[in-house]
Design a protein that fits this description.
The complex is a heterodimer. Chain A is mainly beta. Chain A has no helices and 11 strands. The termini of chain B are far apart. The chains are: A mainly beta, B mainly beta.
Chain lengths: 115, 114
């Protein structure tokens, strides 16, 4: 069973640029959640995709956007990068059963540095 | 809104010492509670979980009990090893209008010396 994978591992961008981060979910999982983890902080929920549609969003501006593809892999796009966007971006996949607890499996993350 | 508060680190212990990392939460309804561990350079791994009051989660010698009356979920281990050195995150999860998200504490770094 292949776990959650993310690419790239590290990325350096400058302010104002745009970035795309990628995530492949674990086999059989149809839900992907994205989290931002600033240095020394806990992860913060960005949004969640279920069957190719966004079904939940945290307190992040619209310049954070995403996609989910038919194979359930996902992208996180960030436009007009700011210095505060520097963080570890974590992707988690899961397979929820309606109304029940489900476990989220995390990838290793992408470290984004904005200069 | 929902929130999680963890004790600040780092927690520095000698091998075989007893570990406690405190975690308290604020939430509406009946959340599920988790402990995740993050080793250097890696993503998060689920360590243990509890879904209702008085449940005890356990894994790899770690334990935590869901205490609704004190809104706590403290992590304990009787004898830590050097390999337990990592950052530990307490988290809660609850349903939000049809989707589930995790709310994390700020993390507690554990350093275990031989």
């Amino acid at each position: 069973e292949t776990g959650v994978t993310q690419s790239p591992t590290h990325l350096i961008k400058t302010r104002g640029q745009q970035v795309t981060l990628r995530c492949s979910s674990q086999s059989g999982h149809n839900t992907v959640s994205w989290y931002q983890q600033a240095l020394g902080q806990g992860p913060q929920f960005i949004f969640q995709y279920y069957r190719e549609e966004e079904n939940g969003r945290g307190n992040f501006p619209p310049r954070f956007s995403g996609l989910q593809f038919p194979n359930y892999s996902s992208e996180l796009n960030v436009n007009a990068l700011e210095l505060d966007d520097s963080a570890l971006y974590l992707c988690a996949s899961s397979s929820p059963t309606s109304g029940s607890l489900y476990e989220q499996f995390f990838g290793p993350g992408t470290r984004l540095t904005v200069l | 809104g929902n929130s999680v508060t963890q004790m600040e680190g780092p927690v520095t212990l000698s091998e075989e010492a007893f570990l406690t990392i405190n975690c308290t939460y604020t939430a509406t309804g009946y959340p599920s509670l988790f402990w995740y561990v993050q080793y250097p350079g890696e993503g998060l791994q689920l360590l243990l979980k509890a879904t209702k009051a008085d449940d005890k989660g356990s894994n790899k010698g770690f334990e935590a009990t869901y205490r609704k009356e004190t809104t706590s979920f403290h992590l304990e281990k009787g004898s830590v090893q050097v390999s337990d050195s990592a950052v530990y995150f307490c988290a809660l999860s609850g349903m939000n209008t049809g989707f589930q998200k995790l709310v994390f504490g700020t993390g507690t770094r554990l350093l275990v010396s031989p």
